């Protein structure tokens, strides 16, 4: 039996009968993590790593798509501990390696260029000015307290090998910053997909994948519209949540 702390609960992740430990005291996974887990290219085997892993939801989702060994890195002790136990309750502790650590220095432990692919769902917002009466776990998940966007991309470039893939989900308004920083650190943007809440609305999120030392060329994929005309999740999202192989998934060969 995997122990639960006070306030923790076990939720159904829906897809592939996965379970996940969550708590209202810390930031729970959301749609962006699910989309990232399906958008990114995955090697059939080898080594993957997820930065800002939180309670380990993205590695859990990746484990349904590849036989690769997957590392998750989370700076907050509380969340890293949850990630370890989430691997255990799903019987994946032999393949999912959850580490409490700082992404800015984790290459010193895990090595340079050791990973075939990397995913990251980083904090989206700059640190606000003034005192913040906010739960520390929520603040760290939302704001660039422990790492900036440049920190994330610089760390990613150190961890993946030449030809390795780096996939990120972020606010669409940060796209130019992301592309600039990716090129600065030799991660050539190769695939991009905008996510819109509803048809006719501007993009709220962007999914982007770069390749270490890749050649300049980017594919813009069809937009993902989250809600249909009945204000329900679109067919593609329902397939993702319930384990279908939706068009968000691409093989490593297709992403070349």
From TrEMBL:
The UniProt record lists the Methyltransferase small domain at 34-126
The name this protein carries in UniProt is tRNA1(Val) (Adenine(37)-N6)-methyltransferase
Transmembrane ranges? none
Q: Source organism lineage?
A: Bacteria, Bacillati, Bacillota, Bacilli, Bacillales
Highest rank taxon of the organism: Bacteria
């Amino acid at each position: 039996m995997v122990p639960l702390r006070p306030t923790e609960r076990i939720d159904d992740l829906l897809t592939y009968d996965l379970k996940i430990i969550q708590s209202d005291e810390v930031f729970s996974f959301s749609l962006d993590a699910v989309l990232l887990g399906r958008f990114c290219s995955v090697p059939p085997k080898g080594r993957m790593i997820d930065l800002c892993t939180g309670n380990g939801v993205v590695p859990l989702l990746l484990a349904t798509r590849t036989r690769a060994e997957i590392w998750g890195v989370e700076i907050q002790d509380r969340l890293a501990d949850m990630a370890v136990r989430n691997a255990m309750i799903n019987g994946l502790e032999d393949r999912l390696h959850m580490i409490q650590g700082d992404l800015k220095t984790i290459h010193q432990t895990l090595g340079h260029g050791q990973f075939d692919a990397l995913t990251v769902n980083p904090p989206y917002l700059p640190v606000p000015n003034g005192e913040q009466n906010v739960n520390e776990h929520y603040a760290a998940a939302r704001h660039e307290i422990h790492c900036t966007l440049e920190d994330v991309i610089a760390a990613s470039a150190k961890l993946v090998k030449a030809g390795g893939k780096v996939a990120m989900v972020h606010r669409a308004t940060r796209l130019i910053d992301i592309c600039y920083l990716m090129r600065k650190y030799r991660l050539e943007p190769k695939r991009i997909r905008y996510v819109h809440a509803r048809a006719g609305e501007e993009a709220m999120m962007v999914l982007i994948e770069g390749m270490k030392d890749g050649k300049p060329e980017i594919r813009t994929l069809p937009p993902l519209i989250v809600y249909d005309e009945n204000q329900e999740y679109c067919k593609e999202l329902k397939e993702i949540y319930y384990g279908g192989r939706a068009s968000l998934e691409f093989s490593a060969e297709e992403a070349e």
